Predict the structure.
Amino acid sequence: MNNTLLDQVVQSIDRQRLVDTAVALVEVPSPTRSAGAAADRLAEILASDDFSVMRHDADWPQTPVVIATLDSGRPGPTLQFDGHLDTVHLPFVPPRVENDTLYGSSSADMKGGIAAALEAVRVLRTLDALPGGRVLLTAHDHHEGPWGDGRQVRAMIRAGLHGDAVMLPEYLANPLPVAGRGVAIFQVTIRRAGAPVHEVLRPPDTPDVVAAGAHLVTRLHAWNEQLRQNAHPFAGHDSTFVGSIQSGEIYNQSPTECLVQGTRRWIPPGDGAAVREEFSQLLAEVAAETGTQIDVEYTEQGGAYQIDADSHLVHAFQQAHTAVAGSPLPLGAKPFVDDGNIYASAAGIPALTHGPAATGAHTLHEAVPVDELVRVAKVYALTAVAFCGRT
């Protein structure tokens, strides 16, 4: 990487402008399916910076996707910077900056990362540093499950609104993930006929939905031990997990329903449809064994994927990271599912998740060091230079 270019990028990043952008985004509450005001705020920021902004309904007109492009005017590939503006449904925490750290809802997950990606695009334009191709900046709603289902990313893919490769500034700074598991969220409802009744007044042979729920959890636990044998060198192993079981209104009432909620994760190159069919078969067996009716809400949040560790995007990123941090990142797996899973599995493009070393995602205590936002902006700008210069 050219040292002169690195120095120019470092000098061109406006630390205060980056923080101001992040704060402006964080101060707009945006729970999943209600991120329209945050999208409008980002569009206003881009327009004030003289970027041409396009909006696209992307299967959710309440929050049209925000799209901005930096075009070099020369041949070359398109690198996409993509982020979600929506947040999990927790009480809103307003932004504040203390001890050079940004706090507040979505500061870590992931408006801080979006602000860093935008700052990278600003710097590239200021320096006219993009040697070819273009950078596509996109931001959307419908990421966080179970409220969102990834529909806007899928709609963008169907409309061809994506790059030749994509980077996502989620809160993963190390390692560089080249593989990730698919995940589905399930809510199983176990039912019996009749009404709730006092335990001593139950008719004989009344199915016990609580016992059926416990039986299902036991089956899933045993299945998880089997799934662990299906492993991947980077992504880990298949799994199923139960995080919630709910039933009954009072201690001595025989209820009519039991809810069991959890996840099913699978490694590449697993087939999401086959995974769902196997899960449905297990539920049918439990229903027959317990004399209950079982229904399921099963939402695939993202498919399993693996990208070529020798791809042009990985090389471009490692070159940029080495220039900024002094060494490349070790390769590894992505512990969570993000929209990169959808881009890789549905659009078939390389997807790299890399963002600030932030903390508190999915809690009331999100925080991201400003130094990390600046670092990410540098890495994204230099990755775009290395990636888009290839014809």
Notes: The radius of gyration is 23 Å. The longest strand covers residues 182-191.
